[in-house]
Amino acid sequence: MKKVVTMFMVLGLFASISFAQQQGRNGLGFEFHTFPSAFLVEEGGAMGVYFPIETANGLLIEPSFSYYSSSSKTDYDDSSYENYKSTSTVWALVVGVFKLFEKEKVRFYAGIRVGKSWSTYEVTGYDDDDDDSFMLAPAVGVEYFISNNFSFGGEGMYSMISSEEKEDEYIRTTKLTTLIPKFIVRFYF
């Protein structure tokens, strides 16, 4: 619960910064992965909600928030086996900063996304496993404006995720590098 409150406080901070800008506009966006669904299930297919904030000096600041949860439960008819339940939950908060290049109804952007994710894994009979990961991702994209308030576009993101797990006897470092294509729809107001 503490992580959720922290994420909403950070999003509130970005929203207050955006309303302090005299020129520019704010919006709401939704992400759609272009990977096959089997990959999303394996990687924890959280879809993001974006909060684009345009500044007067040609920057796009885009905080995003994603959530993924799955659970599995097995109840045995035979009393010699113990019932089994597993739950996986992933929260992520990512902030993108991009330079905008506009030409008529098309807008190109290039920049970086930086963020953090928090994961919890619970399995019956075992200790809970909490993990957090850091993400750094250079990204380029393009938006096509159907009207002044609605756009759709694509983005390519080279995601580098790292995490470190410390136990009594060892330290496990994990690194994941992925090229992620996305389809993003944005509404501006």
Overall pLDDT score: 82
Distance between the termini: 31 Å
Number of strands: 9
As a percent range, the share of helical residues equals 10-25%
**Gyration radius, to the nearest Å?**
20 Å
Structural class: mainly beta
Total of helices: 2
* Sheet with most strands: 8 strands, antiparallel, barrel
Task: Note the beta-strand portion.
Answer: over 45%
Largest sheet: spatial strand order: 1-2-4-5-6-7-8-9
The shape, in one word, is elongated
Low confidence ranges:
18-22, 37-45
Question: Secondary-structure element order, as H and E?
Answer: HEHEEEEEEEE
Give a quick set of tags describing it.
mainly beta; elongated; eight-stranded antiparallel beta barrel; 14% helix; 189 residues
Question: What is the element layout, followed by pairings?
Answer:
Elements: H1 2-20, E1 27-33, H2 37-43, E2 48-50, E3 53-54, E4 59-74, E5 84-103, E6 106-123, E7 129-147, E8 150-166, E9 171-188
Antiparallel strand pairs: 1-2, 1-9, 2-4, 3-4, 4-5, 5-6, 6-7, 7-8, 8-9
Structure description:
With 189 residues, the chain is mainly beta. Helix content is 14%, strand content 63%. The longest helix is centred in the first third of the chain and has 19 residues, at 2-20. Mean pLDDT is 82; it is low at 18-22 and 37-45.
